[in-house]
Design goal:
InterPro entries: DNA_heli_DnaB-like_N_sf, DNA_helicase_DnaB-like_N, DNA_helicase_N/primase_C
Structural class: mainly alpha
CATH architecture of the largest domain: Orthogonal Bundle
Keywords: ATP-binding, DNA replication, DNA-binding, Helicase, Hydrolase, Nucleotide-binding
Number of helices: 14
Helix content: 55-70%
Strand content: under 5%
CATH topology of the largest domain: DNAb Helicase, Chain A
Distance between the termini: 128 Å
Largest sheet: none
Number of domains: 2
Radius of gyration: 32 Å
CATH class of the largest domain: Mainly Alpha
Protein name: Replicative DNA helicase
GO molecular function: ATP binding; DNA binding; DNA helicase activity
CATH superfamily of the largest domain: DNAb Helicase, Chain A
GO biological process, one term: DNA replication
Amino acid sequence: MPGPTSGEDFDLDDIPPDPPVHHAEQALLGALLLDPHRLKTIGPLAPEHFASPAHAAVFAAMTGLTPPTPAVHAKEPAWITAVHSRARAQSPGLQPPYLHTLVSFCPVPEHAPAYARMVRAGHARRTLRAQAEHLTQAATDPTAPDPATTAMAHADALTGFLDNLASLFPPHPGSLPRTPLPPPPEHGRGDEAAYEERALLACAVAHPKTLTAMRWLQADDFATPLYGQLFRCVAQLAHCGDAVDPVTVLWEAQHHGLIPPLPPREVLDLLTTPAGAAEHWGERVLRRSLLHQARAAGLRIRAYTDDPANSVHQLVTGSRRALADLTAVRARWHHATRPAPTSIAARAGPRSPRTKPASTVRTGR
């Protein structure tokens, strides 16, 4: 039985076509081979902006050489020969005929600045996608010693990159992407998450006054929606100053329509076994919510970059909106984990003992 790599299974139609940015790179390099002095007109561009390694090598060779004078360039192929010789050091498989092919792929050499803008846009899309991947991976890496800090560092880098893109690419009408949003990732449910959320509920019922200082936690932060709604019931009773115990919470849960899904006996058992401190379990729940939002933002941004219909400005606008939910959870996370402020007296240190001013003795004349 032939394997999946047999010749009869190979079809040239299975090879994906080159994206438009590939043709923009060819057109730009062709224009610069035809007229090397157009290098001064294309704006800021670097070899890493090119998706093709061969194209990057050709452009790096161009920027590392001194263009010939127009008179010499019109008579001799010195420029294309020098570019090929220098580019082969980075791309050994580059053949001289391909450089002549690049020249033939340039429709209008005067449009080199437009081709360069396309190359920069393609690089921006690829870089944004890579940064979104880093954010998603950091939010789901179980081996990281501090995944929340790592994920937020990637979010900061992504935000800075978006700010830079916004300054390079002008806005235009219809700046919101129309890409269908991917389904939200499943919350990190599991035995550990369920245990922590149950422990939080029991501690909150046993010590409802602690919820006054835990307004940074919301029902949407829970991985199990039913537990989040139970927390909303407990918090509502506590904030209103009503009696809080397993029975009153059960009664409140009934008014919120939670009792058919949850048997009353199960609710009572869940709320009567406190262990630990509510603040500790609350921070655990909020951290899981923070990482969930980071992953959701990364997946959403990646979906935008995978849609070729989005311009760079649309990518910036959509990505900033994707990060907005993460920013909101992050603000609550900082509020929950910031160190307790020290009093002014403690910062100033102990008071020094007062000394009476020395008495002034007046002497007569």
